[in-house]
Specification:
alpha+beta, Alpha-Beta Plaits, four-stranded antiparallel sheet, 3 helices
Amino acid sequence: MAASEPVSPSPGVVLVTAGSEAEADRLARHLVEARLAACVSVFPVRSLYRWQGEVQSEAEWQLVVKTDLSQFEALSQVITEHHSYEVPEIIALPIVTGLPAYLSWLQAQV
């Protein structure tokens, strides 16, 4: 692809966890204001995981970031720079299909 060609839209969802509601809200607002996300849903979760050889169980906040995955690198860089975790969860999933009007709105926002 030539450098001047625009990247085709690639709607997707990026999953991110945060350690507190305040951090989740701050990350979500930053992503929407920077137009890296059309919408971010935030809700409490409990995560069980292995970290540094120990099984952990923590209350966390899950961010579901609706975005254009062609912006994943910029989005993940912003999250990494503003996140309190040493290794934050940043996982991208493509949106295979959806309501055309919603997908058009999503694309217009990012």
